[in-house]
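Inverse folding, one chain.
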C-alpha cells in the first residue's frame, strides 16, 4: 500500500496498469478506441502506452505504435505520443518472457481520474488518505468466493 502521510505530493488518482497480449500479433482496435473515449471523458489519464513483441524464437523487443499501422479504423500512430517509456529493460523482458511467440502486447499505465475529486473533497475537509493501491483480481475473486461459502 502506498503511504501518503506526507503533504509533498500533488493529488493523483490511483495509478494502475494492464498488459494485454494479442496472440499471433493479431492486434485489435476496439480497446484502443475505448481508451481514447475514456481519456476524452476525463475518466483516465494514460501515463504510458508501450508495445512489446516476441518473434518466432521468443526474442523480445519493443515497437512503436505507428509500426502497427491502421487497425480496425484506428490509426495507431495516434498513440505514439502516449509512450513515455516508464518501463525499464527488465520490465520489458519480464513481460516478453510471459508472452507467446509471434505475439504483441500493449502495456498501459494509467491514472484513474474518477476518484480525484472525491479524494480532494475529503482532504479539503481535513480527512487524511492513509493508503491506496491496486487489488489483484485473483485476490478479489477469492474473497468473493469465500463470502459466498458462508
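Residues assigned per position:
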Amino acid at each position: 500500500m502506498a503511504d501518503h502521510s506526507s503533504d509533498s505530493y500533488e493529488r493523483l488518482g490511483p495509478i494502475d496498469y494492464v498488459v494485454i497480449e494479442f496472440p499471433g500479433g493479431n492486434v485489435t482496435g476496439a480497446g484502443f478506441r475505448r481508451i481514447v473515449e475514456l481519456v476524452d471523458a476525463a475518466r483516465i489519464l494514460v501515463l504510458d502506452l508501450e508495445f512489446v513483441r516476441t518473434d518466432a524464437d521468443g526474442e523480445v523487443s519493443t515497437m512503436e505504435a505507428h509500426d502497427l499501422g491502421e487497425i480496425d479504423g484506428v490509426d495507431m500512430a495516434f498513440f505514439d505520443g502516449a509512450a513515455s517509456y516508464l518501463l525499464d529493460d527488465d520490465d520489458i523482458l519480464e513481460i516478453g518472457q510471459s508472452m507467446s511467440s509471434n505475439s504483441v502486447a500493449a502495456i498501459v499505465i494509467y491514472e484513474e481520474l474518477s476518484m480525484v475529486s472525491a479524494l480532494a473533497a475529503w482532504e479539503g475537509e481535513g480527512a487524511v488518505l492513509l493508503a491506496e493501491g491496486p487489488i489483484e483480481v485473483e485476490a478479489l475473486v477469492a474473497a468473493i468466493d469465500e463470502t459466498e461459502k458462508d
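The beta strands are 2-3, 15-22, 44-54, 60-63, 70-71, 74-75, 104-112, 131-132. The helical segments are 30-40, 89-97, 116-124, 137-149.
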